[in-house]
Amino acid sequence: MCGRFTLFAEPNEIISRFNVSNGIADYKKRYNIAPSQTVLVVINDGNENRAVYFRWGLIPHWAKETKIGYKMINARAETLNEKPTFKHPFRRQRCIIPADGFYEWKNTPTGKQPYRITLKTSEIFGFAGLWDRWEKDGQEIHSCTIITTEPNELMSQIHNRMPVILNRDDEQIWLNNKLDDTDFLRTLLKPYNAQEMEAYPVSTLVNSPKNNDPSLIEQV
After folding, report:
1. Whole-prediction pTM value?
2. Within 10 Å of residue 177's Cβ, how many Cβ atoms?
3. In what order do the strands lie in the sheet with 111-119?
4. CA-based angle 187:189:194, to the nearest 5?
5. Which listed residue (2, 95, 144, 171) is catalytic?
6. Is 2 a residue of the active site?
7. Above 90 in pLDDT, residue 1?
8. Of 34, 14, 12, which Cα lies nearest the Cα of 146?
9. Residue-wise DSSP of 31-54
10. What are the DSSP E strand ranges found in 23-177?
């Protein structure tokens, strides 16, 4: 799964990296992004890429209550076409969630050890995501989920799932909401090249979403 990640790159880096046309307002560097929080998301409006803020934890448009979103922070790539929650967004409402690292917990004899996983280049990358819009009694919420897949060689030593990191050449294809060939789209949802990634242990302070400072990304 993917339950925490970081994004502390400079706004101009994100804008350039994802070819965002509208800029990024109210941006804050974050070192411990957690489910139910607001996250920066890139969508395409049919002409341009735009940066928006969505709640992490997908709330289907047909849901009676918003609390379902707490169970929908991730979507399995293998079953997107089977789950009513994800079937329509997979066809028409795809997004990218920018990040520069994510956390995962490894079971050890002394307890769960958090690791931070990044690209070796330390560059920004994009998770494959889905989004939906929920509305009831005048309240409107845009929310998203991060797609996960089988682990690569690096991640298999830490956890049995990993978030889908899109290859850069595939990002604009993923954002093209006119493309609804889900069989083709599924071919983009593969484990990222392990040779281009690295992982290192970090402090258990990351366990609490209340903690959010640069010390969390330091190796221990």
Report:
1. 0.97
2. 15
3. 30-33, 4-7, 101-108, 111-119, 197-201
4. 115
5. 2
6. yes
7. no
8. 34
9. EEE-TTSEEEEEEE-SSSEEEEEE
10. 30-33, 38-44, 49-56, 74-76, 94-99, 101-108, 111-119, 125-136, 139-149, 162-163
Nearest to 166, CA basis, from 199, 126, 196, 198: 126
Question: What does DSSP assign to residue 124?
Answer: -
Cα–Cα distances (Å) from 54 to 38, 121, 150, 194, 206, in that order, read 5, 27, 26, 29, 22
Q: Quick check: helix, strand or coil at residue 139? A: strand
What is the bridge-based pairing of β-strands 74-76 and 139-149?
parallel
Catalytic residue among 48, 95, 104, 150: 104
What type of residue sits at position 28? K
Active site residue 104: yes
- The separation between CA 194 and the C-alpha centre of its own chain, rounded to angstroms, equals 18
Find the DSSP H helices in the chain: 11-17, 84-92, 171-175, 182-186
Q: Quick one: tokens of 155?
A: 């991640």
- Model confidence over 9-67: pLDDT tens digits? 999 999 999 999 999 999 999 999 999 999 999 999 999 999 999 999 999 999 999 99
**Whose CA is closest to 18, among 124, 104, 120, 106?**
124
